[in-house]
Amino acid sequence: MATSAIGPGFLTQTTFFTEKLAASFGFVILMSIVLDIGAQMNVWRIIAVSERRAQDIANLVVPGMGYLVAVLVVMGGLAFNIGNVAGAGLGLNVLFGTTPETGALVSALIAIGIFLVREAGKMMDRFAQLMGFVMILLTLYVAVTSAPPVGEAVIKSFVPDTIDVLAIVTLVGGTVGGYITFAGGHRLLDAGVKGIGALPEVTRSSVSGIAIASIMRIFLFLAALGVVAQGLKLDPANPPASVFQLSAGEIGYKIFGIVMWAAAITSVIGCAYTSVSFIRTFHHKIEKNYRYVIVGFIALSTLVFLLVGRPVKILVLVGALNGLILPLTLGVILVAAYRKNIVGDYKHPLWMTIFGGVVVVSMAIMGVYTLFKELPKLFT
């Protein structure tokens, strides 16, 4: 889940808003962490207790709702995965000088290879863990090198100069919106971690997933803040690359290549796996051949990138739109938490329901505001 969240969109959104808000972006990160935890704890618990995937839960709550959720998640996942494939291509371009298109094709073949292995699940988990460790370590190095004003960042995280609603919606959407919050929940289900007895492990995993993604976000924010605080300008065509290069020179640029590739390839894998998990139960042939459907999903994402490309603003847009999907999916999960035909005798904690309800209402309000007030400004 954490490495699914940390993709090219994650890197782009974080640096884009750090340049815009400077130290006050710390408040956005803090708010997003709280909302992320509120969403993910509820979703993962109900998936584990019901022992069903999200689309099947939604269909039990409102007949047909599962199909709508699946369509929204798969469409958002495909849009994100085009950016993920592009990011992988860009990472290899930085490292080896290949064209982004060639790098994307090579990366897609590596991702496809993982799903063609018999032990695909275990290989996917281990690969994601290794890449996550590499990303965080390298980004920490760049953050230290850029010498950010940490004290100011801490203060502005609680007393910001400005509150940017678009940034909050985009970050939450990019961390637990769309397919991402279900990545870990569905993976635990497939790994056999389910039922009331597994709840302590599920809760611990849901919080640690957000924590890992947030640590990466904070390190990247500090790295970008160090650059912005020096009065240096980021390249609008590739903001995260600027941060690494301006912080640590040519070595920093190569580090960016590694981080971008690791972030992108793990997100290609996580996005494809989770998006397909939303349609697996709709037909027995999809369930039987789901690994090949995942391969097709990756191939389609790669083809679209090769034909269309991936502008920076589209990644910000998709993150914001994923934030709009969250109130719907989380709202359905909260209703399901009190349906005996779904969760049996399980009693969902009231404080968790209230926490989730706050996330649903606040994200719905901020999401609608963003859709009509803020997003148009981004494209004018």
From TrEMBL:
GO molecular function, one term: cadmium ion transmembrane transporter activity
Subcellular localization(s) per the UniProt record: Membrane
Protein name in UniProt: Divalent metal cation transporter
GO CC entries: plasma membrane
InterPro entries associated with the record: NRAMP_fam
A Gene Ontology biological process term: iron ion transmembrane transport
Transmembrane parts of this sequence: 21-39, 60-82, 102-120, 127-145, 165-189, 210-231, 251-278, 290-308, 314-338, 350-372
PANTHER family named among the record's database cross-references: SOLUTE CARRIER PROTEIN FAMILY 11 MEMBER, TRANSPORTER PROTEIN
Alphabetized UniProt keyword annotations: Membrane, Transmembrane, Transmembrane helix
Membrane topology field: Multi-pass membrane protein
Source organism phylogeny: Bacteria, Bacillati, Bacillota, Bacilli, Bacillales
Organism: Brevibacillus composti
